[in-house]
Amino acid sequence: MSRIKEFNLPDLGEGLTEGEILAWLVKVGDVIELNQPIVEVETAKAAVEIPAKWAGQVRSIFHPEGATVEVGTPIIAIDTEPGAGPVEEPAAATAIPAAAEAAPVEAAVAPGLTGGPAPGGRTAVLVGYGPRTTAAKRRPRKGAVPAQASAPIAAPAPVAAAPVAPVAPVAPVAPVAPVAPAANGRGGALVLAKPPVRKLAKDLGVDLAGLTGSGPLGSITREDVQRAAALAAAEPLTVTAPVTAGASFGADREQRIPVKGVRKLTAENMSRSAFTAPHVTEFLTVDVTRAMKALDRLRGRREWRDVRVSPLLLVAKAVLLAVKRHPMVNSTWAGDEIVVKDYVNLGIAAATERGLIVPNIKDAGRLTLRELADALTDLVQTAKTGKTTPADMSAGTLTITNVGVFGVDTGTPILPPGESAILAFGAVREMPWVHKGKVKPRQVTTLGLSFDHRIIDGELGSKFLRDIGDFLADPEAALLAWT
Amino acid sequence: MAKGDPGVTTRGRRAAPRSKQATRADGPELVQLLTPTGERIESATGPDGTEYRVDFTDEEYRGLYRDLVLVRKLDAEATALQRQGELGLWASLLGQEAAQVGSGRALRTQDMAFPTYREHGVLYCRGIDPIMPLGLFRGVDQGGWDPNEFKFNMYTIVIGAQTLHATGYAMGVHMDGKTGTEDGEAVIAYFGDGATSQGDVNEAFVWASVFNAPLVFFCQNNQYAISEPLERQTRVPLYQRARGFGFPGVRVDGNDVLASYAVTRHALDNARLGQGPSLIEAYTYRMGAHTTSDDPTRYRIASEVEAWQAKDPIARMKAFLTRQQIADESFFAEVDEQARAESVHLRERVLAMPDPAPVTLFDHVYPHGSPELDAQRAQFTAYLESFEGSAH
Question: CB contact, 8 Å: A265 with chain B?
Fold first, then answer.
């Protein structure tokens, strides 16, 4: 056995085909022990740490953090005898990742096809559906049957085979170039494609007979059809204006971004909420000059000197006090019953590098103002550093979205699934405002409250919003009157 | 259900209330003989007045500790092997060692056990080579032990199904007249809190009760049915369900190996004497994921896990052994070294497991084969031989 061992990404959860590298816990040159955690990988099912399969020294790391890697692809090479002097570079260590990085979507097929150099001569398929395999892997049958005729994809040399040349998703090359159907070895009008793909092709005006499939057994996939359609649409353009697009745009001047991770989750949640909960949004414009002055006084106090005090803090306090007066807004529609909660897990929508996330402050109603301020600071810091855990984001009951930080006045927010009210807090601006009978420059903001009309009627929603506004207009008086 | 509730039939010895009672930190009527900090409680009284106590020698205490550590280490190695692509799946027992070792060691040689797929600790106590379940989860065999030889049935993946198998088996034991003496046979069925929502388990309760089967229902309540918390499974403490079916139930601290032993031993003895079934709810916590395909951070909070960490079954045993000077650092180091060596050995043997030949698929379907099966085997063999370079 070679002393340099490559570790292939295993199927971490019964039939998964890929995983995303979240974080490397070791770097090239590190000496590692058996079972030492080396990498965090997130699959469709779980984020897990993978322990080292061998002790030794890390020689190469093949994929950066954030990369999506197919099961069966090498991710790390470990020198199991680091003290034994220099070694020649194994060919596979450089060749495979190079191909994978050039074409993150399609090229990963190659290692999947070969099964990867797994130890013990096994293929990298462990359980379930795993990476794709082809008929070309099967040993030829005995007897007079011509091998070529029985194997739909002629691929005698497994590694080099990859009949579909690795391509970036938008690059108009090989796979869609019109090829005579005979060339795929089937020699006739038989084209493999599932009914929905045929329907798509018909809708887009693509002739299936002119395509080479990249799916199992050479079947034509949805992507093949879409690429062909995009190419057809782009062709006139490439004639008149060759290669004008920017780095990430293809010849059709369109960029295709795979929907995954936070974006995918956001999309699912928002569509689900928007089309199940009947939303109503109300607005209220409030003179918050007194609240801003109160904040200044708070900042001036010795014991609050090191605390981050923002207008959001007062809005959060206003919401929590208003919930106490109207508990019904803090509830969930559960089909045949309404679940009203005695605790408020206050969600704060945060824009992060990974996208929109909504962590929440657990049982925020029990916190003092000072604890609430600290919790808000913590929450923002954690979100900014990307350390928010799924538990931080689960079980929210009511949410504030601070759109004011983007300089806009208000919005009609969509409810996080399972919640019945969400408040948009707009920018605080100096505006002309009638104050004590005269037009004066005052600090004014607009609140937008969306609520689930299945639970909350206009009257309740209005009272709740009005209370939040009253608190922000005169926090001291509201505190005295309500608590 | 208060102690001495007139509606409860008591069968155990009714002891006078003692001054040293179990602490009630985890709710009422939790039988505990070793607190999370390693304090020994002399005796504890169950809801029906039964007094539980254990009387181990120092050597036996050390043996229990060794079991706990070894079982945990081997389980951790199996989890690592799955992460490294060597097993298809693994259901870790992390956190439940005491419930399994305590109940497993309470079994007598003649007793029969029906496990779920997580009873690696009980399997170990039955004297079965710990490599056995790894073959199953590696997909190279169907689990290789002989259930009759070790009196430990095959792992059952279907949730709760084994409780019916156990009930039938126990009814058979009873009908064969193997109960009614001090040396009688008893049966134990393992299942989890989630399984209590299954029809199978409730049917098993009915049958075992009505036919007075010599059966102990041992429920490891690890608080989650995959991601569903206990409060979505039941509105009453699980052990109280037994009363409705007509047999006694008791809740034991499942992270306390001594109490788990005492309660199981008592229930088994009742069963072997012909006094029918009982339910034990071992109150514990699954510290890891449901299986390696699960991500528990998606449904439970870190502070809950930390709270249970403070109740760790091994830490409390170690504290007890140290405080009582039953064991010292050299003993703990020796146990750790044994665990390490056994886990390395386990790993080597797993990596060396051969892939089975495809035709072995037909080997253990019927004890004496069948003409149809033989035909299928012949057909499949011919198919395999049609390939060039075939060894078949």
Answer: no
Rg, C-alpha atoms of chain B: 22
Look at A35 and B80 and tell me if their CB atoms are within 8 Å.
Answer: yes
Task: Quote the CA–CA distance of B94 and B195 in Å, as a whole number.
Answer: 19
State which of A229, A258, A287 marks the end of a domain.
Answer: A258
The answer to whether residue A407 is domain-embedded is: yes
Is A355 in the same domain as A402?
yes
> ipTM score here?
0.75
The CATH number covering residue A277 comes to 3.30.559.10
- Average pLDDT, rounded, for chain A: 78
Contact A127 B289 (CB under 8 A): no
Domain membership flag for residue A147: no
Q: Does B48 touch chain A (CB under 8 A)?
A: no
pTM of the model: 0.58
Which CATH number fits the domain that encloses residue A53? 2.40.50.100
Q: What is the pLDDT of residue B144?
A: 81
DSSP one-letter code for A238: H
Q: How many domains does chain A have?
A: 3
User: Does residue A424 share a domain with residue A286?
Assistant: yes
A434 phi, psi to nearest 5 deg? -80, 115
Q: Is the pLDDT of residue B364 over 80?
A: yes
Q: Are residues A382 and A459 in the same domain?
A: yes
Query: Does residue A301 share a domain with residue A221?
Result: no
Q: What is the mean pLDDT of residues B174-194?
A: 96
What are the CA-CA distances from residue B72 to residues B95, B119, B148, B325 (Å)?
Answer: 8, 12, 26, 23
Q: Name the strand (E) or helix (H) holding B225.
A: strand B224-225
Looking up tokens 């601006």, which residue turns up?
A: A429
- Within-domain flag for A28: yes
Closest CA to B292 of A41, A32, A124: A41
Instruction: Return the domain boundaries, chain B.
Output: 30-351, 361-392
* Partner residues linked to A434 by β-bridges: A439
Topology of the domain comprising B30-351: Rossmann fold (3.40.50)
Q: Assess contact for B143 and B155: CB atoms under 8 A.
A: yes
Q: How big is chain B, counted in residues? A: 392
Residues A267 and A188 in one domain: no
Residues of chain A with pLDDT below 50 are 91-137, 144-188, 235-246
Residues A34 and A96 in one domain: yes
Residues of B marked as catalytic:
286, 290, 299
All residues of chain B having their beta carbon less than 8 Å from the beta carbon of residue A50 are 83-84
pLDDT in tens, A244-277: 444 567 778 888 888 877 778 788 888 889 988 9
Cβ partners under 8 Å of residue A250, min gap 6: A168, A170, A171, A172, A230, A234, A256
CA dihedral in degrees (A291, A292, A294, A295; nearest 10)?
A: 120
- For residues A316 and A251, membership in a common domain is answered with no
Question: What is the domain range of residue A187?
Answer: 168-258
Q: Which of A48, A145, A394 to mutate to test the interface with B (most CBs of B within 10 A)?
A: A48
DSSP B33: S
**Burial annotation A297-329 (CB, 10 A radius, 16+ → b, else e):** ebeeeeebeebebebbbbbbbbbbbbbeebebb
A474 found inside a domain: yes
A270 and A126 in one domain? Answer: no
Q: Does A391 touch chain B (CB under 8 A)?
A: yes
Q: Which of A258, A275, A290 is the last residue before a domain boundary?
A: A258
- Side chain identity at A98, as an amino acid letter? A
Q: Is A274 left (phi over 0), alpha (psi -120 to 50) or beta?
A: alpha
Q: How confident is the model at residue B390 (pLDDT cuts 50, 70, 90)?
A: low
Burial label, A195 (beta-carbon count in 10 A; 0-12, 13-18, 19+): exposed
Mean pLDDT of B311-326: 97
| Burial environment of residue A49 by CB neighbours within 10 A (0 to 12, 13 to 18, 19 or more) | middle
Examine the residue annotation and report whether A453 is marked as an active-site residue of this protein: yes
